[in-house]
Structure prediction request, 632 residues.
Amino acid sequence: MADTLPRTRFNPWPATVFTVLCVLAVLFLLPTVGVLLSSIKTTREISMGQLWSAPASLFLGNFTEVLGNPAVHRYFLNTLLVTLPATAVSITLGALAGYVFAKLPFRGSNALFLVIVAGMFFPPQVILVPLFRLFNGLGLIDTLWPVIIVHSALGLPICVLMMRNFFATVPNALREAAIMEGASEWQVLTRVVLPLSLPALAVLATLQFTWIWNDFLWPLIFTQSDTKRTIMIGIVNLKGQYSVAWGVQGALSLVASLPTLLVFLFFQRFFIKGMTMGAVKG
Amino acid sequence: MAQLQLSDLRKSFGQTDVIRGLNLDIADGEFVVFVGPSGCGKSTTLRMIAGLEDASAGAILLDGADVTRARPADRGIAMVFQSYALFPHLTVADNIGFGLQLQKLDRATIAARVADVAETLHLTPLLGRYPRELSGGQRQRVAIGRAIIRNPKVFLFDEPLSNLDAALRVQMRLEIARLHHRLGATMVYVTHDQVEAMTLADRIVVFNDGRIEQVGSPMELYDHPANRFVAGFIGAPSMNFLPLRRAEGRAESPGMAPAPLPPGKETATELGIRPEHLALATGTTGDLTGEIELIERLGAETYAYVRVPGQPADLTLRLPGDTTLRPGTPVTLTIDWPRARWFSSDGRVL
Prediction:
């Protein structure tokens, strides 16, 4: 019986793909592992060159130092003060504009939509100097305002694009039914279309929050004093005057990435499909 | 309860005229059905009455008041959509009460009225469910519930049954008829299904190419169509049309024995005969001779498609259900002449 079975030929593809993926996973994870390892080692241990070895004992001093540092508290607060409003503003404006582009098109709205989306293709380096001069002229340098404004604006293209495309999938009949029931456009948006767009909102909130939280460039350009710095610049600032505090920096890197992880975990329950199921035609 | 009046209503999209001047009076409590082929403008007209589409010209009067430019919600009109258009994130109760919530009525009032409507539509056990948990017929009832809760003056239905299967469609058709009977409200109903039109309507409005071809009760349209379009559109299977040639006061057509032209029909170019007005000849003489090409048995009745040489299309003949005729049988047919319709070259009935 057994020898009548056709011998399956060895297919090298799945194995190759699997190997490549494993190698990539290791490459991507290595830095994180390195940071994790150095955060639980003493500076002495690290400076003795034992970067990749398991620590002799679990040292939590780096974390207590980071969490007890008032400057770090300030960095966290500043980052929140930038990230929350910028995320909210870009998503709100994106939803409003996206609704108009998807449901209330007007003459030239498609062209305008393309222009807005084209904003995504400007590298920040191109607009960096003019923006610095603009905010300098407005006297806003070394405040958080330019960072909030720039992030709100730079988030618009992706927010408008995503919201418009998602709103386009919400059947027009739902809008018309709501209007027949006496809803204004604002009520159609807030009571019908947005509740159906939670997946898109969750994706955007996660993206924008992570993007702005992790940003290094704009706070570096627009802020100068230590009390205005955000967390990513704070990590760099933590290097000692005479030495690089690897352990402390590692600890802060881990602590700094926690909020984005929490945001992702919070929003991922909205990453569900099929919200519009049953709306029209069964 | 309301009287609805359309006065020279027009709609154009750019250069294309979609509705070319409609005049129609709908009486209080009347059930009017718009029928016509796809793209004839019946749905556009309904959407203009609803206020979802702006009229390019003309007026819509509701109880004498001009509502042509009024917001949809201010017209006192409710609409049931072809796709039901239920809000998927709201329960049945919230879907039905949506309009009342927007009016900011207090919760107890809304709950009481929702319960009331649910009771009449047998939706009470489903109030806590979401639309995705309902069957097609239940969704349709929720859509109707959402329409009736505000006590609108006029109900609009846009092909409400076209997404249902055949058995459910018959059932819902009866429910809509009952609803009309109970509420006594003015209803305008769009369909392309002429069985729905014939069974539901007090009056049928036949649309074609953005114009009204004829308005009348179902039997009026069936027995006395104004023109060839209405004659062909109303009735299933549709009327048989025979092209005519006039010779010495007699009408000739391929395969047909020459027949004298009745007075007043001298200019006829086409003859229309409904399938039930053709019969198998008992003797050897008849009006038409041909051969049965196909037999369709529906149980209670049978339709035979008869190939008459020279005629552009097969003639449909209605027979009793137990007929023994088979395809290929040569037949001779007689025409019920008094009930035949004569059409002039421009399609008018003579």
Remarks:
- Chain A touches chain B through 24 residues (CB under 8 Å).
